[in-house]
Predict the 3D structure of the following.
Amino acid sequence: MHTLYGGQNYEVESAIKQVVNQAIVSEQVVDIFDAAGIKKPEISILNEEFLEEMRGMKQRNLAVEVLKKLLRDEIVVRSKFNLVQSKSLMDMLESSIQRYQNKLISTADILEELIQHAKDIRAADQRGENMGLSKDELAFYDAVAQNKSAKELLGDEVLLKLARVLVDKVRASASIDWQVKQSVRKKLKVIVKRTLRKYGYPPDLQKLATETVLAQAELLAEFWQ
């Protein structure tokens, strides 16, 4: 689900209301925009029908602004439970937007890139299921697999096992208020380091991986309570 925050961008909010008022898109998409301006929508913007509506809009500048805002909101939602994946998605999105703002690509080009980013987000949502990982396990897998050297050295099979073990160990050891207790953080840090070492994680990459795993664990802590 995505949420458009009132007052955050007056021009885009006004443009969205204009779309709704003029009913220049299908009834389903009008419902999405109407909901987006006031409350949480019931339909994801990531479905093919919605994206095709955006591609076919005559007001391409408007379609670009709307997609930019909605995609950012979608990624922010994911940042609450997958640190590495959401950062990667946001970096790619912002790179496209920056190139567009610098007039390096056309409105038609940025629209196609934004549509592709929407599809990338949808594909990212399916990765865990395709890999046989829970949402928590996928988040920890991304935390230890983001380094290409580690991924090439250990391979997916080992990293998948490592992710599952890390989830079990960190979740079992984390107390409700572990984020604010230095002693608990130190304990978890030792557990993560030992686990990485046990699975042959490259020594020179262990420090960064440990910090990323702990940051990821902190994100998930509220869901584990």
